[in-house]
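Entry:
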Amino acid sequence: MSVELNALRDQIDEVDQQMIKLLARRLALVEKVGEVKSQHGLPIYAPEREAAMLAARREEAEKQGVPAQLIEDILRRTMRESYASEKDAGFKCLNPELRPIVIVGGQGQLGRLFARMFRLSGYTVKILGRQDWEHADELLQDAGMVVVTVPIHLTLDVISKLNNLPEDCILCDLTSIKSKPLQAMLDVHSGPVVGLHPMFGPDVPSLAKQVVVYCDGRGAEHYQWLLQQLSMWGASLCQLRAEDHDHGMTLIQALRHFTSYVYGLHLSKENPDLAKLLQLSSPIYRLELVMVGRLFGQDPNLYGDIIFSSEENTAMIRRFYQCFTEAMTIIDEQDKARFIESFAKTSQWFGDYSQKFMSESQSLLKHANDAIHRG
């Protein structure tokens, strides 16, 4: 049996080596694709092409007795690397006449990411950091666009200093709140203004499929090239009013970060053995624990700024606390029937999204389980 098993394993190793060579060839072709897209100004992410290709490969896989989901998983993972490779090929410059782009706070992680993307697209980029304000007038006097990316609590003060920009200069920000910064930019600058919120962190390998929210301010015709440049980088654009954006962020960011903070705080007070918790964890709990732990591996000032950024956030968290208190009453009274009734009403509110989220989570959990090594 051992001889037969080793022979089969040798054949598997040979196939694996062939797969690696094929993947290397695919990535090399992707680099050439990136060069062609750069020359012709095409976005690195083409959703229609991706969907059609995946559908065709799934059909081909099924004909050969290969699970369709297997080939889709492999291709999606491969495409993620492909988008990163295409990015390195650079991008066509959609506004070659633009004067230098000045990134205020460009030494931060997000600022460095956008500086790199603009430079990959052929723009001249200058950085205005904390130590450079004595030279600010010199840096800003010929700016074609100014991008503000500083901590939330500094944003309004920094914007107030940008009161002597060229009239045709585009002023924008990358802050995760929009109403106050957008109004501040409109007040301080008479030229084109737009608010941007990249819905991702600075560690993304590429902007393919990443969402960028934009809130129109003034002179939209002057910054359409910027929106098109973001699309070329692969980003998915979402247009919102600043007020609608901020209301959404109250739920998506402030409340979510606060609940993760409280859960992590509670864990620290209970002081369990995290290694043992991970041993006992199902994939879904491990994923939840990972997301909570991820929060505490980052800058507390960032999350403090997000949570404390508005009275709306405080009001939302207070309503959540009231909801939690009501739920606690059900537990105190051991009222299982009331729990089930409340559960059913909430399930009804989610509607068809419950099954959609169930399907999406099953896929995520399979990937999470694959990544676990249990000795």
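The mean pLDDT is 92.
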